[in-house]
Write a structure and sequence with these properties.
Four copies of one chain form a homotetramer.
Chain A lengths: L4 H24 L4 H10 L4 E2 L7 E2 L2 E2 L9 H15 L4 E3 L10 H10 L3 E2 L2 E2 L23 H20 L4 E4 L4 E2 L7 H17 L6 E5 L9 E2 L4 H11 L3 E6 L9 H10 L3 E6 L16 H17 L9 E4 L8 H21 L2 H9 L3 H13 L3 H11 L5 H7 L2 H9 L9
Parallel strand pairs in A: 1-4, 4-5, 6-7, 7-9, 9-11, 11-12, 12-13
Antiparallel strand pairs in A: 2-3, 8-10
Amino acid sequence: MELGKHLIEEHNQSLLNTHKRKFDFVAEGVSDVEGVIKKLIDFQIAIPSWALGTGGTRFGRFSGGGEPRSLEEKIADVGLIHALNKSSNSISLHIPWDIPENATEIKAYASHFGLHFDAVNSNTFQDQPSQAHSYKYGSLHHVDKAVRQQAIEHNIEVIKYGAELDSKALSVWLSDGSNFPGQLNMRGAFERTLDSLQHIYEALPNDWKVWVEYKPYEPNFYSTTIGDWGQSYLLSSKLGEKAQTLVDLGHHLGSTNIEQIVSLLLMEGKLAGFHFNDSKYGDDDLTVGSINPYQLFLIFNELVEGMDARGMNHATAIGWMIDASHNVKDPIEDLLQSVEAIKIAYAQALLVDQPALVQAQQDNDVVQAQEILQQAYRTDVRPILAEARLRAGGAIQPLALFRGTAARNQLIQERGLKAVSTGL
Amino acid sequence: MELGKHLIEEHNQSLLNTHKRKFDFVAEGVSDVEGVIKKLIDFQIAIPSWALGTGGTRFGRFSGGGEPRSLEEKIADVGLIHALNKSSNSISLHIPWDIPENATEIKAYASHFGLHFDAVNSNTFQDQPSQAHSYKYGSLHHVDKAVRQQAIEHNIEVIKYGAELDSKALSVWLSDGSNFPGQLNMRGAFERTLDSLQHIYEALPNDWKVWVEYKPYEPNFYSTTIGDWGQSYLLSSKLGEKAQTLVDLGHHLGSTNIEQIVSLLLMEGKLAGFHFNDSKYGDDDLTVGSINPYQLFLIFNELVEGMDARGMNHATAIGWMIDASHNVKDPIEDLLQSVEAIKIAYAQALLVDQPALVQAQQDNDVVQAQEILQQAYRTDVRPILAEARLRAGGAIQPLALFRGTAARNQLIQERGLKAVSTGL
Amino acid sequence: MELGKHLIEEHNQSLLNTHKRKFDFVAEGVSDVEGVIKKLIDFQIAIPSWALGTGGTRFGRFSGGGEPRSLEEKIADVGLIHALNKSSNSISLHIPWDIPENATEIKAYASHFGLHFDAVNSNTFQDQPSQAHSYKYGSLHHVDKAVRQQAIEHNIEVIKYGAELDSKALSVWLSDGSNFPGQLNMRGAFERTLDSLQHIYEALPNDWKVWVEYKPYEPNFYSTTIGDWGQSYLLSSKLGEKAQTLVDLGHHLGSTNIEQIVSLLLMEGKLAGFHFNDSKYGDDDLTVGSINPYQLFLIFNELVEGMDARGMNHATAIGWMIDASHNVKDPIEDLLQSVEAIKIAYAQALLVDQPALVQAQQDNDVVQAQEILQQAYRTDVRPILAEARLRAGGAIQPLALFRGTAARNQLIQERGLKAVSTGL
Amino acid sequence: MELGKHLIEEHNQSLLNTHKRKFDFVAEGVSDVEGVIKKLIDFQIAIPSWALGTGGTRFGRFSGGGEPRSLEEKIADVGLIHALNKSSNSISLHIPWDIPENATEIKAYASHFGLHFDAVNSNTFQDQPSQAHSYKYGSLHHVDKAVRQQAIEHNIEVIKYGAELDSKALSVWLSDGSNFPGQLNMRGAFERTLDSLQHIYEALPNDWKVWVEYKPYEPNFYSTTIGDWGQSYLLSSKLGEKAQTLVDLGHHLGSTNIEQIVSLLLMEGKLAGFHFNDSKYGDDDLTVGSINPYQLFLIFNELVEGMDARGMNHATAIGWMIDASHNVKDPIEDLLQSVEAIKIAYAQALLVDQPALVQAQQDNDVVQAQEILQQAYRTDVRPILAEARLRAGGAIQPLALFRGTAARNQLIQERGLKAVSTGL
């Protein structure tokens, strides 16, 4: 389904006066509100193709209705999100869950919704029916060269698919690790992984990047071969300039200071980008901003400060993507909440009085530094986001409009109650 | 398949001299080795019916060959384990994964292997095709009375199945909880759970118990309605004498002092029993004793001391069961390792010089208390376990014999390479 | 030093127009803003006497200047805070750090600042020079009856001091525990603690409460005898109606769902009150609201809902106190930030649309439930707090006024640069 | 006090028969027991000068009697330990707690006990009375160049002291960090730290190393400037070949796979050495091996495998030191237990059947890999340690002999009950 432009216009018209009052109020307190709006309009967050269906856990999965049954339907869902919030103009494919059979047609179809293709993702953490070798004991780190070779070739094939779609990055998440002490020689595993990645690196087009993700545990529960930012950094620095480290917010041990990692990776020119989600316990893959929105703001505070210090373009210099599991929420609604939370944090970070913060830091005025951060964080920036959406042609309240149009019911009618999306 | 008795005898014969030398050595250092052996022979650990197949994670599952395809084949696998180690004389069924169609026949079949039926387990964390209402938002805590009623009836049905099998306990693990703040009124959820459990409690036969399990998170990632021992205790104390709290070793937040919980539940007469596994991060469901065997010993130290203080029979006063996920190991081999690890910890705990420990505690002699515990723990008790097995008719080295007979290959031949067991 | 009333008036006058604009804006979006203001005016948070000095860690302590040298100076500091924010009208004494030699005079002195005395705190985690027995191995749980008796008598003496000051509660935090496995029989430790507390309980005046605090670790690093809410609950339920469980926000294992504990303790009528602080790793004792302000809001959401459900008076039914360590901030400034953060969370919780939330919960509309909570949380309620302060005679911006009057410099002149406060 | 040689001989004589029986038994199962003994004799663990006194927490400190009052008495205590276990032939000084006024005399005095001087430790986490600038807001990372310069000069002075004592390494632990978001620009802090370390690095003698320690939190509770192994590695790789990363076992977030870090640092030639202790919650600084001895074994398994793969001398290629806090145990007894635990883990690691393990790993035989590790770990190697001590001139049971001679009572008589050691 597609959302008629007039629906958005009607929606906006009905909320305009209230919106204006709120926006004018908040704008009065912001020094360069136009600059902030411009940055918010430019800032786009990619949607992964696997996020449009209902997720689950090892204990089960409770499908929702109207899930997309094909790549085209997933693109249409992202198109719907983008029409509503004008903040998600790209989709990130996962191979082999979403193989684009005809790249030209798929690109044209996406383009119709104003979408292009973000990083492509390989999958060597599951076995496919056609596969010669199993990844039960890992892929790029495997003791058996034949398994490694198969995994390398899969990654190169993913690059090929991506190139046809004008993607510019390969995103590699390995579940390689061990469940028990002794299972693995950890040094050997690291060295084999590096060797495998070097083969993949060589197959990268010149204008591509490879993003090396890390994760401490799950699905392996003793060691993970790329387990923390230091291990990913070690790999990406040995690989070369096209390799960088990807930060998934859920991929850290409890209490990790993620914003410090972000700050240092930026310093080293090695921050590839983000997979956004939130969590209370482990890699819970909850809606970003639903558990600890202040931490998200602190991360964006480091990003804005650090990218500005290196003259980087906020919108394009690194990758921004949601990666969450929608187990009990409608995926489209969940993604609308996610994008909103990310842009709230970004807008708050843009509001931080950086010169004053620098001065407070120079004076070791800890109280004042906290005041400065919380002044930005406590500001209700939602009207600025709405204004940016309004100007870009989106809806003042995307979620309310989505619900108001009963879009999900339409999707259920089109696709059925029992459709199941490919993916996890 | 069944293991011929002569195979065990041949195996034992071949190892007897070496075994005797080791046993005699360790026996010399133990004050009442015969008492220890007696207790080890009596001590049996139940095997859950879902443990015989390969487990997985939300990211995938890599089957092994020769998995049991039916309840009968699961019973046969437990029979094989018990023939080897004489330490697992019961099986714990999970409904509806393993519904015993004909109780009399199933009991007779189990009895053929020397097995009986331990606690029965209900399942309201997954939807079954035939089900009227979904458990997507919980079961016994659900806001909708109809859903709660369905879940109550399922539990009562499970009791009925159990009664036919001469089980004496219903084990209830609820995944009920919430993924996001606001999703649930937590007080209301608790009160509805209590009300539901009261209905189930009323259906319990007089000589039954209901075991109330707790778990902090997964598959819900914000709150779990029975989230910790205190919440389970609150429920079981309100329910009455037939209700007790079940401890699954993996169901705790990081760093929890589990042994203290065990000690206090014993004090209150509210310890139902154990689900054994090990973990490094969360509910990793690894082989018990594979990550932190000293903690396992410390738990058994509390058990032995606490049960003796209350005059409880170690073997029968509470429930002992393995509950792990065999993702990368042969399930039977994994279970053999698990039972061995549990009995090692138990034997070490039996070796603790309790009077000396009491004295050291009375003197606040912390150094000496540690020496006493570690003296028991450092002792290589494996020959004592082997002796107990030998006397009970089992194998000196169960795992070696299982491998030596190529039992798994036989199972693959019988059941095929692609058999998939019911369960997770 | 005391803050002249005219200074507050001048300060408020200079900010009044800006304040009014902000307040009018936010008030328009709140259904019963007058009700909220009334509740904010009533809501008072106690200051502990040990919070006025600089705190430290085992690695060191870096004093600030102008720290209070006596109980009188501590009272004066709280008076200054209260004059500024009209939200901290009581002080909580710690015995023996702050023994009130003459209760009548001290009460009159406090009363001069509009202050009274909140709960009194005993200390059996340190040895005092005059003490017969050492608490090295614990106090109320000690194996030696003489040590327990000394600790019991100390607590009874603290009640006596409190009674003279019109306190109504004894707050007991025990560091009793063990550093090593084997050091302690945990059941025995629990039973002795219960017995000791019963003696103290008997000495409580009829209109008093005893608040039993829990903490998982530090200063003991293997077990703590009152280690979690369940253990505290067990004790307070065995003691009787005058005993309740105190929640210190920093006294939980990582990832604990504190709001659920709060909800259940309220349900059971066993919530004594709070010690507020924030933390990222352990019992970090940071400024409340500085690390995870959303969690603080979620706790207050449970409090408001749960207290309303039981018809409890928010301001008086339970105890509210700050308990943090001011290692790198000026203590008075830190306390001003703390009180502000607590009242922001409280105000946001008052803004939650409870009927709509109940409906969303009834519908399992998880998306909507999150929207409702975040609508309240995202609202910038600071102008409502300022309005409440203004009406109560406090300052629109307490921290700015404190800094503007150079109050700390005056304190340094009065008390010196090297004054060191009693306490940690 | 000094332990007469005859006391050791008498002690050994009395235990010899029993020892021989046990040693002969275990030796029969070890393929190269002489090689193991040789390595155990060579393996020495340094004692830090601050470990001889009682430690404490921020809540208090409970002194023990007979604590050493001077550097000479600390050396004597290490001498006593070494006489007993022949495994601690060096002492690691902390400046300024233990400034050697006359290096020649101190070396001679140490030499009398068979001791030399291990790494020297600087201290910029506390203020000294004579100091011009405060470290309240950090040292090598400080925003103020004058503070950094002071800290640099202190480190260079420590090198000077060390050079006079024939030390060969400077060990740097910084508490630099921040308690609150915003307090610090984390990139700037890192860059200033690097710059400061470069100045120190330049002052290193050619045959020296600088060991860069990391720690995630405490005494700072938001960020630590050298917070994890990746950050330390980044610094040490930028500094040069003489810089390496020091691993303190307690300096990790919960659940960290420390053995993997060890394996990779060895791979990169960047492992400086160890500070040994154990912990359940945070940096608990408990006796090594008292909480999770299997983890300690797993770390040694990586060390033995990794050092052998690089042809490194186990005893001398990296630094081995205890760093724990003796809060409730006699420090000397605690150190004897610590050294024993370390050498047990080392001996067990030497017993691992490495070729079989390599084969199991090559076969992905996870069950077998676990069997191999646990076969080594379950072996009671204590008689091998005793044999190594016996041959080196130490005691078969050092702790029993220490207690038997009532050495602590003698120390109390010499030094008094209330002596307090310098340090924490």
